[in-house]
Input
Amino acid sequence: MAYSVSDIATALGAQFEGEGGLLITGAAEPALASRDQLALAMDPKYASGLSKGQARAAVVWEGADWRKLGLEAAIFTPRPRLAMSRLTRAFDQGPGLAGGIHPSAVIHPSAEIGEGAAIGPFTFIAKGVRIGPRARIASHVTISQDAKIGADALILSGVRIGNRVVIGDRFIAQPNVVIGGDGFSFVTEGKSRVEEVRETLGKPSETERQPWLRIHSLGSVTIADDVEIGANSSIDRGTVRDTQIGRGTKLDNLVQLGHNVIVGEDCLICGQTGIAGSTRVGNRVVLGGQVGVADNIFVGDDVVAAGGAILNTSAPAGRVLMGYPAVRMDQNIEMYKASRRLPRMMKQFAELQKTVKQLLDKGHDNGS
Output
């Protein structure tokens, strides 16, 4: 599908100059763009790529001299990433799933499939499942008993959805997501080594050998509208109550949510982040890549944790955190600066020790 430059500018809520009738079939990096593609040169650092590509039109930064850049038309945007969101949505061709229900899909007679839903090859839909209208379900997906999925869902290959999971509208699950596996919850008959370590702060003690006994997961998972979950992520079911994800929250690849976790609305949780059991995360929280969040704590609204941060204690609303253990951003920067000064400080300390020793030895010699 082709769009004119003027139509694209209108869709982006942006201004354009030049030949608005040019037809555009896609978007590309400046150096790789063909004549019918829109080059994405939204920052001056990308300008040099335009001369290497063939684009006649580009999205450029405000104030760019597009004629000098060799363009026939230009779209100006003050918010490049927002423009990227709208532009990529317009040109996204989707996963290419065929409509209808593939003959190899296994669907229990009691399952309810909404109007216009597409179900791919070798997908299994169990007893009591409800699939909303226009849902698109790819191949090799398993949806277990009594699960409910809302309208306009996109569930890609290899996704596993457990018993009684409830999912809202416009849900997106990337390949191999697992929703509703059992929580990682075990106990010993007597006091475990872990419990003793917490009480004694790691002092040596004798611990009897005893097996770990499973605490079964009786709850499930509830996911609100407009949630997206990245590939190979895992959401555990709750022990008694449901694990919950709020409206509009986005999870990256390889994210782990433990049993009973509650995540609020419009959160952004980046790759390889793990949130341990029974922790509550507020609204609009951003957790960078490889963030670890301990169990049974609370992360307040609007908290931002930088990549690699480890949250061992509750975080108040609005706090920006870095480091291990996570502390306020300004504190972490000061700690980092101090740690870089340590080698020099240790050298100075050694020189001071040497000077003091010499003074003491001299005083001792004078006294004798």
Observations:
- Helices lie at 5-12, 80-91, 193-200, 329-367.
- The domain at 3-91 is CATH 3.40.1390.10 (Udp-n-acetylmuramoylalanyl-d-glutamate--2,6- Diaminopimelate Ligase; Chain: A, domain 1).
